[in-house]
Design brief:
Elements lengths: L1 E2 L5 E6 L4 E6 L4 E7 L4 E6 L5 E6 L4 E6 L4 E7 L4 E6 L5 E6 L4 E6 L4 E7 L4 E6 L5 E8 L4 E9 L4 E7 L7 E3 L5 E5 L6 E5 H4 L3 E5 L2 E5 L4 E8 L5 E8 L2 E2 L7 E4 L6 E10 L11 E6 L44 H26 L6 H11 L1
Parallel strand pairs: 21-27
Antiparallel strand pairs: 1-2, 2-3, 3-4, 5-6, 6-7, 7-8, 9-10, 10-11, 11-12, 13-14, 14-15, 15-16, 17-18, 18-19, 20-22, 22-25, 23-24, 23-26, 26-27
Helix pairs in contact: 2-3
């Protein structure tokens, strides 16, 4: 089953009755029943919604339905037991897996004819095209007796198998992520899901880091594009903001400065030296907030500072740092001169007293002792 690109109708294959039912998704009622081949298995619709391609595994054909009239306009013979079908993103080709022939048929949608048949693994079943249309993934299951357990990767440029990935389990269902980075493969026998990365297949992809970001107005953030797969070197990058290409941004890094407080989506593509360009990366969501109001300073303002807490620096003493220019200057020998003068004075006094004693013999000798003490001092 598949739904038209506009979501208005669902086309359902009825394996047992050889028909396709058309369901109106608004009323959820069947509006048409279309007879196709034996055992219709899968259906795919072109990107413009104009045609539906139905594989008929019981008759080895593909029925082409005009969705405007819901009638079969062409029947195309392919390999044995056709199962899966997938249309390229440009709508130019349909890839059909032929489980009974171990092959894939390439149908031109303009001529509704098989242009090429590609040999793959045993019992090919599921098929999917990468979003950029560069590769086709095919799950190889079993032929009734032998399990394959591989995935064939076909290059749409050369229509050849470029890689075969061994999963170790049978591979049945297949789905690819929108950015082409991963393929998810279901296993019927093991009840598991295997994840294939683009590095395994050689697909050119790009991712952006960090995966999300929150910032304020006035700030800037730098994002990195991480490329893998492809061929040669990575020649250039292209950055997008909300889907709009940013002029002059061809490097693997991008510095973003928001213009307003909204949520932005940032993506990137990469082009390798062969000229192949990847699909846009998974979007990085950037949330921008208003610049927060600065927190008031807790330091008191000068007018509120008590004068008692302000301690002026000490003024150097003029006698230690700036000698007074009017102070008299004494020679370094001043202490010795002073001592000598004192000795002369003391001796003079002693001589005077001695003369007086000669005149007055009854005078006590005590002063002589005091004078000697004074001399010593």
């Amino acid at each position: 089953m598949t739904v038209t690109p506009n979501g208005a109708y669902a086309y359902v294959t009825n394996l047992g009755s050889g028909t396709v039912s058309v369901i109106n998704t608004t009323t959820n009622t069947v509006t048409a029943t279309i007879t196709v081949g034996n055992g219709p298995a899968c259906v795919a619709i072109t990107p413009n919604g104009a045609y539906a391609y139905v594989t008929n595994d019981g008759s080895g054909t593909v029925s082409v339905i005009n969705t405007a009239t819901n009638t079969v306009t062409a029947t195309i013979t392919v390999g044995n037991t056709p199962e899966g079908v997938a249309v390229t993103p440009d709508g130019a080709y349909a890839y059909v897996t032929n489980k009974g022939s171990d092959s894939v048929s390439l149908i031109s949608t303009s001529t509704n004819s098989v242009t090429t048949t590609v040999t793959v693994g045993i019992g090919p079943l599921g098929v999917a095209v990468t979003p950029n249309g560069e590769y086709v993934y095919v799950t190889n299951t079993f032929d009734g007796t032998v399990f394959d357990g591989t995935v064939s990767v076909i290059s749409t440029a050369t229509i050849t198998v470029t890689t075969t990935i061994t999963l170790g389990v049978d591979s049945v269902g297949l789905a690819i992520t929108p950015n082409g980075a991963y393929a998810y493969v279901t296993s019927l026998e093991s009840g598991t899901v295997s994840v294939i990365t683009a590095a395994d297949t050689g697909s050119l992809i790009v991712s952006v880091s960090p995966s999300s970001w929150t910032m304020n107005m006035g700030q800037s953030a730098t994002f990195n594009a991480n490329a893998s797969g492809g061929s040669g070197t990575y020649a250039s990058y292209q950055w997008y903001v909300d889907g709009s290409a940013q002029s002059g941004q061809s490097e693997p890094t991008f510095t973003f400065t928001p213009a307003s407080t909204v949520t932005y989506s940032i993506t990137a593509t990469v082009t390798d030296s062969s000229g192949t360009t990847s699909t846009q990366s998974t979007a990085v969501v950037v949330t921008v907030s208003v610049t927060p109001t600065p927190t008031p300073s807790l330091t008191p303002s000068p007018t509120s500072t008590p004068t008692s807490t302000t301690i002026p620096s000490a003024t150097p003493s003029p006698t230690t740092t700036n000698p007074s220019p009017t102070a008299p200057e004494f020679p370094a020998q001043l202490p010795r001169i002073t001592l000598a003068a004192s000795m002369i004075i003391v001796l003079s006094v002693a001589i005077t007293i001695k003369k007086k004693n000669r005149k007055n013999p009854t005078q006590s000798a005590t002063p002589k002792k005091d004078l000697r003490l004074n001399y010593i001092l």
